[in-house]
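Exam revision sheet. Question 4 asks you to relate a sequence to its structure. Input first:
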Amino acid sequence: QVQLVESGGGSVQAGGSLRLSCAASGGFFRINEMGWYRQPTGKQRELVAGVTSGGDTNYADSVKGRFTIFRDNPKNTVDLQMDSLKPEDTAVYYCKMTISTWSREDFWGQGTQVTVSS
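Answer key, C-alpha cells:
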C-alpha cells in the first residue's frame, strides 16, 4: 500500500527558512507528478510548487524566487526548500504524488504545520 510521510515544518520568524520533505513507500511502478500544496486556516488548499517526472517545475506566483522544489527519483522523495518566509506562508502543507500502481492515483501526505511569525 502506498504511503506518503512528511517531515519538517515548524515555527520560524519572518525571513527565516524551513525545509519540508516527503517520502513515498509501498508497492508502485512509477511516480509521475510530485507537488506541494498548502491550506491556510479557513481557506482552500492551493498549489505551491510542482515537478514533473521529467523535472519541469512550476510555482505559485506568491512563492516564486523564495521556494524551491527538489525531486529525488531513486529515493522517491520530494523536498520543498522555503526561504525568506512571510507570515502569509503560514498554513498546513501537504505533499501530493501521482503514482502508477495498477492504475494512476493521487496520494497525499498527512500534512505538516508551518507557522511564520512577524
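Marking note for examiners. The chain has a mean pLDDT of 96.
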